[in-house]
Design brief:
- The structure is a single chain.
- The chain is mainly alpha-helical.
- It has one domain.
- Helix content is 61%, strand content 4%.
- The protein has a two-stranded antiparallel ribbon with strand order 1-2.
- Strand 1 and strand 2 form a beta hairpin.
- Helix 2 packs antiparallel against helix 3.
- The chain starts with 7 loop residues before the first helix and ends in a 7-residue tail after the last helix.
Length: 94
């Protein structure tokens, strides 16, 4: 055996849906945050934080494209338990 080989078609089919270098869910969240900031401040300068957040997302997706989706899953499924300060750990909620 020469080593592990990657098939381009398999890698493309298992990759999450991407848009402009980030996952689609991150792009939608970034767009909603930028739209809310624009509605609050009524200034075009809210594009600057949106572009900075997008750049951060691109850097996160370079190594692992699912890193943002994994974080979203962890944040939604694994909240802080009442005794987190005592035991310094979390658990999944039933």
């Amino acid at each position: 055996m020469e080593g592990l080989q990657r098939d381009r078609l398999f890698v493309a089919l298992t990759r999450p849906q991407m848009f402009a270098g980030v996952t689609y869910s991150y792009f939608v969240i970034n767009f909603v945050v930028a739209a809310e900031l624009f509605l609050l401040f009524r200034s075009i300068w809210v594009i600057v934080p949106a572009l900075l957040l997008h750049g951060l997302g691109v850097l996160l997706c370079l190594n692992e494209p699912r890193s943002i989706d994994l974080w979203l899953t962890r944040a939604s499924k694994c909240g802080r338990v009442r005794n987190h300060g005592l035991w310094r750990c979390n658990s999944y909620r039933p």
